[in-house]
Design brief:
With 535 residues, the chain is of the alpha+beta class. It contains ten helices and 21 strands. α4 crosses α5 and α5 runs antiparallel to α6. It is elongated and about 85 Å long.
Length: 535
Amino acid sequence: MRKFYSVILLLSLVGYGVQAQDNFFDNADRFFEQYVSGGLVDYTSVRKNPKELTALVDYINDNAVLETSNANDKALLINAYNLFVIKGIVDAGEVGSPMDVSNFFDSRAFSIQNKKISLNELEKDVLLKQTGDARLHFALVCAAKGCPQIIEQAYRPETLDAQLTEQTQEAMNSLIFTKVDAQAGTVQLSRIFEWYRSDFGGSDRDVLTFINLYRRTPLSTDTKISYYEYDWTLNKSATVVKEKKSKSTSNLLQFTPSQLFGKGQYEVNIFNNLYSQTSTWDSDGNEMSQDRRISILTSTVQFTYGVSNNSRINVGADIVLSSGSVGNTPGGQLQLFASDNIANDVAVTAIGPRIKFQPIRKYAFFSMQSSFLAPVAGDPEAQTQSRDVFLALNRYQWRNQFFLDLKLTQKLRLFYQLDVNYLMRRDVDEVFFQPNFVDLPSTAFLNFFPTEKWSLYVSAQYFSRYGNTGLTDSEENVKFGLLQSSIQLGAGVKYQATRRLGFELGYGDFVTGQGFEGIEMGAGEVLNFGIRYIR
């Protein structure tokens, strides 16, 4: 038992100890927030106090690489382009347009790893060529008013895909940037679509298809395209002193249940679930008291890694550690840790791979996850003399989860999760004939975010288990029906301790339930404690 809790403590400490801060993105956030407003840049103030810009450009030279294989490198280079543009204008002095600066886009005036590079090389030969991501055209800003507007924050690895999509949506739905005449069946587009036509597919139909991916009101595929003159006027703002404020970087708000990680990002999640019961429900829904407390602590260690550039596919692995006890008396929920229990046991009970994906790109608030857990402990159900305490089901588990996030107000969100779990018998020579289960937990979470670091929630879950209601060893008498059901109500709190590290504490109570002829349903309570680290 001590070894088990030592492992949990060690994993928790590792999750806490590996936290690290990438100050560049925080510093770039503050810079853009201070000097950018409404898509315009306060070049005059930057020129008077270039220290912050110089530090950011120096960091880029020392740390950036001309690769976009992961979200961190890609985000860094996008910020590098926009910062290089600002530096180019600041160094040029008072100009009315980037076109007033000789070879502004082709001059190798900037450095990455002490290698000279031009803006065009960084944009075309590195970012666009390596990623093939046409959304970059609406994030890379050329210092002209004809460009899509520069944003007041840095592009960050953990939110990059969402930021690129948001910027593209802004441009495609802007009455100024995308000028639609529905009656005439025409649209006037920025010359970005003409200059980089191949990036959007090549033909007019391809361009319209791209635009419609991000428009709230799609254009007809036979809409006639023309291009308006590009405004090369400098995107310069009047000097405005802006009050500094911290940008929301909380993972609580960014990585809600349906959201996925960008390429190269990863998460380590340690979730501890302590279930404890002193009674059960019978087939009539009557609560039956026990003279002792049965407790099971399930600790699930999950590692998740982003593998796609568009943040639509994550892969990972799960390890499940279980500890169980039978107490002398119906003591408190923490009786699991008592030294005078009748029986205690601990084991690694399951391990398996997992994949999470976003099936429909347009609906970023919906995702699916599938995992397959294989039992690895001997007799986890304590059916033989080899084990005295039930730890886990002795079954292969194919778990499928569907996540839906709905934003009700600025601070109120509804998260819904539907599980469809298929549990397959591990040992075919079991005494009773119960070949396979189907579990269908359905859970709703109402979350309130008083600040970006805190989340309070209430939850409600309906659980149902379907299996063989024939209760016979004969396969001929197998009947598929409802075996167990319950309703659980709960509440909890989440806290974002640092930019990357978060904690969760929750409680749940099984308020009603029903078993089936000899198969009782536990009438217990749960305590949850989770640690989440995102890099």
